[in-house]
Amino acid sequence: MDWEAEGFLEGTEGRDREGRLQLLDALHEDGASAEELREAIEESRLALLPVERALADEGAHTQRAVAEKLGLELRFLQRQRQAAGLPAVDPDEPVITDSEVESARLLGAAKEAGLPEAALFDLSRVLGQTTSTIASALRTITVESFTRAGDTEREVGLRYAEAARNLVPLAIPAVEQLLMSHLRTQLRQDILDSSMRRAGRVTGGSEVTVLFADLVGFTKIGESIDTDALGSIGERLAEIATDALCGSARVVKMIGDAAMIVSPDVDPVLETAFKMVGAVDEEGEDFPQLRVGVARGEALGRMGDWYGRPVNLASRLTGKAYPASILTTEWVKESAAGDYRWSFAGAKELKGISGGVKLYRVRPASSSADGA
């Protein structure tokens, strides 16, 4: 193939030109069509083709044939795919891979065992969101770890492909192990009381302590620094939240400049809050300060997230808390077992929360400060 005559080398010179020429030859020899290569160049992703091909799992089945073979409704498979966040496919195009067929078989077995379709779609949605996040993290790690200044497309592409071949097989068992560990931990914390057994399902909610923490002025800061620096602040907050966890406290989610942490107990959440505020303070003046709201009450845990009054209340409290302070409700104060310093912060009307709420600031017992 005369790549220059086809216009595939346009805009390149020197090492970049030689690198693209070598990459085109290698990809073409590996089976990439000229049209596929042209499209990749036009979309500025030629260097990523080696990775795509390294991770490729060629489709050989149609969605309709898979449904018929497994005795499942085509609409069921289509809805499951949509719930998982994957693009829709033509049911008569052979694009379904062997691994996707196996996943469909497992879903069918779960459906046959009695799991409702709605529950399976919920599970697919959570798995899709979680694995998409994992894939994004792997991509970021790969790009940041294996990109060198002055790289040609060939050097970048081959290095990324090699990293993908090495990292993905390691990531899959790691995810499996973490899943089992989290499942065991959450099962140990679950309560199945007599009313739930009689009803034959998990009913109502459970009493939990909810922490919301956000960075003061994060939105305003975002207007004055570049996106990389802003992202670094969010990533550092995620690290701080994870490192600060005490006892039964666990991170439910990170939302840019905010963290949500939940525990069935009060003290682990308060200890986590103290550590988070201290860690953020140690970041220095250039790092925005943290403010924390903690509430307790009955909430419903659903598909990895939590809903209910204490969730809304903890979120509202962050807006009332002073920088570097922790604001809680009376229920939290009365439920805490540890030795802490409490100060009444008044009864406040909070948006979206019925009735006035008595608020308390809390500090470690060793704290000598009496400010907000």
Note down, in words, how this protein is organized:
It is globular and about 80 Å long. It has 2 domains: 127 residues, no CATH class; 166 residues, Nucleotide cyclase, GGDEF domain (Alpha-Beta Plaits, 2-Layer Sandwich), CATH 3.30.70. About 2% of the residues have low confidence. It starts with 13 loop residues before the first helix and ends in an 8-residue tail after the last strand. Helix 5 packs across helix 7. It has 14 helices and 8 strands. Strands 1, 2, 3, 4, 5, 6, 7 and 8 form an 8-stranded mixed sheet that branches. It is of the alpha+beta class and 372 residues long.
For the report, how would you describe the main beta sheet? 8 strands, mixed
Principal-axis shape equals: globular
Number of helices: 14
Beta-strand portion reads 15-25%
**SSE ordering:** HHHHHHHHHEHHEEHEEHEHEE
The CATH superfamily of the largest domain turns out to be Nucleotide cyclase, GGDEF domain
How many beta strands in the DSSP annotation? 8
Calculate the terminal CA-CA distance, rounded to whole Å. Answer: 72 Å
Percent range of helical residues: 40-55%
- Return the domain count: 2
From the helix content, strand content and strand pairing, which structural class follows? alpha+beta
